[in-house]
TrEMBL record:
This is tRNA (uracil(54)-C(5))-methyltransferase. It catalyses: uridine(54) in tRNA + S-adenosyl-L-methionine = 5-methyluridine(54) in tRNA + S-adenosyl-L-homocysteine + H(+). Its EC number is 2.1.1.35. InterPro entries: MeTrfase_TrmA_AS (IPR030390), MeTrfase_TrmA_CS (IPR030391), NA-bd_OB-fold (IPR012340), SAM-dependent_MTases_sf (IPR029063), TRAM_dom (IPR002792), tRNA_(uracil-5-)_MeTrfase (IPR025795), U5_MeTrfase_fam (IPR010280). NCBIfam families: rumA. Pfam families: TRAM, tRNA_U5-meth_tr. Residues 115-173 form the TRAM domain. It is an enzyme of class 2 (transferase). GO terms for molecular function: tRNA (uracil(54)-C5)-methyltransferase activity, S-adenosyl methionine-dependent.
Length: 587
């Protein structure tokens, strides 16, 4: 890995490999910057202007854009290096002359852009990305001694496919999948449940068995540590990643969907614009569904099989309303669809107990589903909320959580009891003095999910969270659930260390930061505090791997920790996303 980085990012070496992953990288030019010329200047020409006129027109330049290495675009750079390493090529051998393409300079047989953007047949897919795309090598159409690295959506390792190359970057090209000529043994199209699959950008894995999906996600975690925690991997601090925990529901699990629509600027809408989810390129491989959802960048989608039943009822209602009132919109918007659960009181009618501002059908009736809680036998009503400020409720592990519909809350209720139990079990401090209480710190605590679900038998829990709104919900949630040992602080995670008064030997810490991961300052202070155990949950395993390596290798007491286990949870079946849980304990 070090050698690869050295080869392609020589400037990084000067500043040290260990700090590389924390820096922004500029993997390649991403945007075109067109330089203006004075060609349309009608004023009399001065000498200098006349000289300027005789100059050759300036070449168009790329404007480089900084990319977070742990973002999908940043991770792709590591994946490109990995594939090149396997087949023994270096970056120069796949480099595209983007400047020539941008300026469409004549090369070989005419302007170059046309030669680059073309159909290529019989392409064998060699590797997958963590985003669920296939990667393959194709010939460079202009510089025949070179190759190109193609990213192929919905391509599986072992497939042989026909593709359309439509966009060129310095070290890869973007393509659309046109046909699958030979199928990978993993490809099982009969499993596809959604007519938009293969066009919609939401799901990548519907054609894989669930076990294969879980295995790919385990591989994503393994690779993330290889790319972002190379020293821990080399020193075998990272052991084998455990099997990914599956979601009890593989479809109908998502408690929140956000369909959206666009309104072209300065135009009145003549007809209803598509309302749904983004289209992934211009894929053509699923012939039977080519026209489904239309051909705009947003697909018109009336049902989403990964959404819960009541969220789909809400989607139907809101689409019907949109059909009538779309002309009132001056710009595009996103519609929030969030499931809300009401614990029913058998002594009064269901409708009396439901919030009036839940999504209604065209007759003005609230759409709801009555269900039974399998664990307690309690009767529940599910409704769909569209107002971001409305307070919604969820039941997890016998606790009730209230939060604003627009604020963060986990989106797969079915998997939450598995996750909260796993977290709770792994927070336990072994061999603690009999009778002495243990303590818990919940950094990035949101509305208190992990604090409250892990509070039993613990002396005290301190949660810290940047959103004052979420902290106020965390406090009410603790109170409403009769939990008295939880205290919540508003502020950045590191604020916690100002008020922590629990003995570190008997304290466990849970970390659940946003996608960008933790700040170095926080990780340094965490190591200084020196808790007995740490459970780090992350929706971006790449920033998690970077943080874990920083914590163990760069902080003063980090080397006194080991990784006890590393496992994924599949919060989002049918998609490439994986939630990773890393448990660390003192050596
Ligand atoms: C992935 S969510 C986890 C929330 C909670 N653990 C849960 O499961 O519901 C991350 C949370 O971190 C909060 N957050 C973001 N940056 C933060 C920071 N620097 N310090 C503390 N909290 C932060 C966000 O507001 C969000 O609630």
């Amino acid at each position: 890995m070090g050698a690869l980085i050295r080869q392609f990012y020589p400037s990084i070496i000067a500043s040290g490999l260990q700090s590389f992953c924390r820096k922004m990288i500029t993997p390649e030019p991403l945007m075109t910057k067109i330089e203006s010329s004075d060609i349309h200047n009608k004023r009399p020409l001065t000498q200098s202007a006349s000289n300027a006129r005789n100059k050759k027109p300036k070449l168009k330049k790329y404007k480089t854009k900084k990319v977070d290495p742990t973002s999908p675009r940043g991770v792709l750079e590591f994946e490109i290096d990995e594939l090149l390493g396997k087949i023994g090529l270096d970056r120069e051998q796949i480099r595209n002359d983007v400047s020539a393409i941008l300026n469409d300079v004549p090369k070989v047989n005419g302007p170059i852009a046309k030669a680059y953007h073309r159909i290529v047949n019989n392409v064998k897919i060699l590797q997958s990305t963590s985003n669920g795309d296939g990667m393959a090598l194709i010939d460079n159409p202009v510089e025949i001694e070179k190759k190109q690295l193609a990213l192929i959506p919905f391509g599986l390792v072992g497939d042989v496919v026909n593709i359309n190359v439509y966009k060129t970057h310095p070290y890869h090209v973007e393509t659309d999948l046109l046909d699958v000529i030979e199928e990978s043994p993993s490809r099982k199209d009969e499993l596809i449940t959604c007519k938009y699959f293969g066009k919609c950008s939401g799901c990548q894995f519907q054609f894989l068995s669930y076990n294969e999906q879980l295995e790919l996600k385990r591989n994503t975690i393994t690779n993330a540590y290889k790319y972002f925690a190379p020293r821990l991997v080399a020193e075998k601090v990272v052991q084998k990643v455990g099997l990914t925990f599956g979601s009890p529901l593989e479809l109908g699990y998502r408690t929140k969907l956000t369909p959206h629509f666009d309104v072209p600027r300065r135009r009145t809408l003549e007809s209803k614009p598509p309302l749904g989810f983004g289209q992934k390129g211009k894929q053509k491989w699923r012939k039977e569904t080519l026209d489904c959802g239309g051909h705009s960048s947003i697909l018109d989608i009336e049902e989403c099989p990964i959404g819960t039943a009541v969220v789909n009822m809400g989607m139907r209602n809101e689409r019907q309303k949109f059909e009538i009132n779309y002309k009132n919109y001056k710009r595009g918007a996103t519609i929030l669809l969030r499931e809300n659960t009401t614990l029913l009181d058998n002594s009064c009618s269901i409708l009396e107990q439901l919030k009036d501002d839940s999504s209604k059908d065209m007759d003005g009736n609230i759409s709801f589903l009555e269900v039974e809680d399998i664990r307690t036998g309690a009767k529940l009503a599910k409704t769909c909320v569209t107002n971001t400020r409305q307070v919604v409720r969820e039941y997890v592990d016998g606790y009730t959580f209230r939060f604003s519909a627009g604020e963060f809350f986990q989106n797969n209720n079915a998997i939450l009891p598995l996750v909260t139990k796993y977290v709770r079990d792994n927070l336990q401090i072994p061999n603690s003095e009999p009778g002495a209480p243990n303590y818990l710190v919940d950094a990035y605590c949101g509305s208190g999910l992990f604090s409250i679900c892990s509070s039993k038998g613990v002396g005290k829990v301190i949660g810290v969270e940047i959103s004052a709104d979420s902290v106020s919900f965390a406090e009410t949630n603790a109170k409403n659930n009769g939990v008295e040992n939880c205290h919540f602080i508003v502020g950045k995670a590191e604020k916690l260390f100002e008020s922590i008064d629990m003995p570190c030997d008997r304290t466990s810490v849970i970390l659940d930061p946003p996608r960008k991961g933790c700040d170095e300052l926080f990780l340094k202070q965490l190591a200084e505090y020196y808790p007995a155990r740490i459970v780090y949950i992350s929706c971006n395993v790449h920033s998690q791997a970077r943080d874990v390596e920083y914590f163990i290798k760069e902080t003063e007491r980090g080397s006194r920790y080991k990784i006890e286990s590393l496992r994924g949870f599949d919060f989002f079946p049918q998609t490439h996303h994986v939630e990773s849980v890393c448990v660390m304990s003192r050596v």
